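Duplicate of earlier report; Putative PurR-regulated permease PerM input re-posted below.
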Amino acid sequence: MSIFRVAAWLLTIGMIITLIVVGKSYLVPIFVALVLWYLVNALNDQFRHLPFVGTRLPNAVTLGMSLVFIGLALYAISDMIVNTVNGFILESGIYLPKIEAQIARAYERLGIDRTPPSVSDLELGQQVLGNFALVLAGVTSAAKGVALVLLYVLFFLVEQQTFPRKLEALGLDMRGSTRFTRTLAEINSAMRTYLGVKTVTSIATAVLSFVIFVAIGLDYALFWAFLIFLFNFVPTIGSITATALPALLALVQFDNLTPFLVVVLGVTGVQILVGNIIEPRLMGSTLNISPLVVVLTLILWSMLWGIVGMLLSVPITVAIIIICAQFEQTRPIAILLSRTGEVNTKKLKRDRHTVPTPQEEAVADPT
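Output:
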């Protein structure tokens, strides 16, 4: 590889990273809208198969049902978060003395002769209230962006009706058209499989965890279950964080360690059962990503786009691998990012033998 090609690659990568960072406020709503667009189409496919007077519902009706369903779900989620945060703030006077009691109990068990610090000494009350204020501000900011995201989703739904005709009008040769169509089909299949399986397994994990929370009487059980559902989309650290937060509340809420251990062991067992046994069987070979790459991309996208980047790190990486695997120049990148090193090279070789190149077409048809 020449020095000029290396410089061109470095310049291209630098420009892309700059665009991602500078255009964060514009790109994040678009990518979130893409995810919602996939969910709307997935719901639409399910609604299309619902029996209605012996016939299938019209596509326009099922699309409207999908949009209404997702809109109501977003409203219910935001309302639940606001009510939970307000409840924490109002009941902080109950939890803060319990925190002091737990600190004193820990000092006694560890045999520390010093006087245990109070909540006011540690300034935990101000920190907790400050964090809750940040959460409320974040929810308010997200609510303002929901309208823009839903507008993008509507544009995507309108565009998908005419996109096949636009693709046909591009006039690509047989080789280019086959590659482009296959790439879009693979990305679409991988995204649908990932989002569908991840949503189902996240719901299952949240429901089982909710049963555990209700059984021990943990406060705000529904909120913690939703948090587990959401954080289950974040690779590696998501399940750990979602388990630690309700466990800490159980440690503060109850006077003994039994509920805390039940939350830790119960939710961890559910995470292992669903995440390591059920989910891989449902996912199959859709996510051909190296575990190391998953962690590194998680860190990278969290630095660039925050929580949204953490949630979208895996789908974006899957799309990058599929696109890079279609071209000889970028296939090494796809191989390095993949889990096994196999990136449909057999399919590419078959296409090269079955699809004529432009030179071959010119020889076969001199006119």
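The chain is about 80% helix and 0% strand.

Merging into the original ticket.
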